[in-house]
Amino acid sequence: MIDVEELRDCYTNTPSKIVLLVADGLGGLAHPDTGKSELETAHTPNLDALAQESACGLTTPVLPGVAPGSGPGHLALFGYDPLVYNIGRGALEATGIDFALEPNDLAARGNFCDLDAEGVIIDRRAGRLPTLVTRQLCEQLQSSIELPGVELFVLPVRDQRFVVVVRGEGLSDRVSDSDPQVEGSPPLITEALDDEAEPTAALIRTFVEQASELLAGRERGNGLILRGWSKRPDLPPFPELWKLRAAAVTVYPMYRGVARLAGMQTIEAGDSLQTQIDAIRQHWDDFDFFFLHDKQIDTAGEDGDFLAKQRAIADFDRALPALLSLRPDVVVVTGDHSTPAVMAAHSWHPVPTLIWGRNVRADHIHDFSEPECVRGELGTFPAKELLPLAFAHAGRLAKYGA
Amino acid sequence: MIDVEELRDCYTNTPSKIVLLVADGLGGLAHPDTGKSELETAHTPNLDALAQESACGLTTPVLPGVAPGSGPGHLALFGYDPLVYNIGRGALEATGIDFALEPNDLAARGNFCDLDAEGVIIDRRAGRLPTLVTRQLCEQLQSSIELPGVELFVLPVRDQRFVVVVRGEGLSDRVSDSDPQVEGSPPLITEALDDEAEPTAALIRTFVEQASELLAGRERGNGLILRGWSKRPDLPPFPELWKLRAAAVTVYPMYRGVARLAGMQTIEAGDSLQTQIDAIRQHWDDFDFFFLHDKQIDTAGEDGDFLAKQRAIADFDRALPALLSLRPDVVVVTGDHSTPAVMAAHSWHPVPTLIWGRNVRADHIHDFSEPECVRGELGTFPAKELLPLAFAHAGRLAKYGA
Q: CA nearest A350: which of A16, A11, A28?
């Protein structure tokens, strides 16, 4: 909706509390033995009761058939067109370790890898190098390498993964990856993709040369590959767009980071749904909009563990009454994408979604699940169109046109 | 769908009669005592029978969550993207009193208001000045004020409301309102919003100064405020786009005006559904497409009168057989937006919609209502996509592509 400039003036700041509950990877597929999805199988009395008083439907995160990463999945839920606004891999990875990217910073995701005597990649992950070793290597690279005119950050993520951030004036993201994405080939030379990017490409080549020399003698992790050079996306700030005070309440830094890129404030959320809801309670008067992110359902889905995903959904359901006891005006329950356990991956399948609040035209469906949400009035619709509906139910979206 | 240039060549002129029945404000919300909407509660045997032979669904007028004014609501039903084409308040108001706006005319909506000794607005509506007084004031302003190089029209609407139209070359709509929209503040000075609009802004300030002098001595209505300076929208003409002869059959001038802006012809419609249908019968051979507008349902909804809305829907239902006896090829029943009595306002909720005609895939739903239409094949879809469906059933939309 961000692209709809015409509606900008319709948003008004009225006193109301909106909670966006994102159950990451919520949607699923049927278990081959039962014919029922994780959400259909899980015990969810609270979600079912809420759905019976809600308008229901299914959201398409990006486009039919497109399985989104966490970046586009969340941008869509925040009302940004995920095909217009994207977060590059480097920027997302930096954000995901709570690194505060500045507007001119250029970030890439890196892997330490194993090279043979000819410089050919024989293991892209260096046998999943321990995080502790990766941390030491990052410190060594950052302290040893000097790049002219810019500041350098080399930051560990997990296992063999790390982030490189270059801070300086005039850097361009129009540079190619050194990661060939396959083994059996040497790392690629980073090239400028247009003339203006030439100095940046030269700087990156200098970094790679010096880093390669420093790593050369090692048994594991004697090389490095980089990809996804990107800057922080230039997102119109969420609180200004929608005229509200917005807080992100997430356990995992990646999602806190995406929310922060969108201009939301973040509040200390602890490490569970319970502590997240406690945090919302403490800050209830300070914000109009709360984005609560649950990761457990997606993790179980990605692991291909149907039963664990079913249990994570039940946990999510159990947390609901504590949230509802805060008496929000509008509650949205959805996911940023589906993660069917039978696929063990993010998928494109539309995501069960409900909106509860004042003036809702309740669908009277039986329970909150994929097949029941199909019967809801909201139909199957783009995720980016979800938030304005929540704002309408909160009385924050005035009439359009005379 | 007007934005779909690619389909333009698919439209063909075949002999067929299409009737678009717009029950303004048709959609509703449940009465708190019964859990049923106005449409579910009303006695509608004819609509129900028609729905059982129709393809059904719900239309989203603009976007989810967006409650439209009458302008965008109708443009969408006429197949125009309401976010691309909009009708400014001044143009809509002029149109609503049957003033034939010319392409270069610039129109604003005005209120006579009460000012205190310091020029501060103390009543934005001058105690709802009688229409008769407003008419006299308008005549006085129009005959007394001379603006260099342009023609001036000052026209009464109702109560304290009036319309100002300036006719001349090179006028710009990029000028600010003088209406501050609140009391306790003086009227604002009209400013140019870009350089080109400077002469227009100066002209408007001259008008306001002279009008203010003329009104100054009065007890009520000693000031004026203006807003929504706009020109008639540059709509591609409906009959050319769809290759048919189109007639608007409306009781209220506002809707006749919107249809006229879209290039439809208007026919004398009397003051009731009965006289409207009589008018259609008389002109049956002269047109391929008839737009019939019913206002009563919306009026009751805006009044927050559930029972009156229910009765207005039943009246609408009773008129249906006379229309069907004309043997149209395609009938569409929908609304330009919902107006739930419990909200007493236009709302964003999707609007129950049916298409009846040849080659329809009937949904076999039980009755024409919000929850039944949810189960229809058309699903919940943008209102601007409705009319091409009607044309398809009329055999007017040929195959696209080889």
A: A28
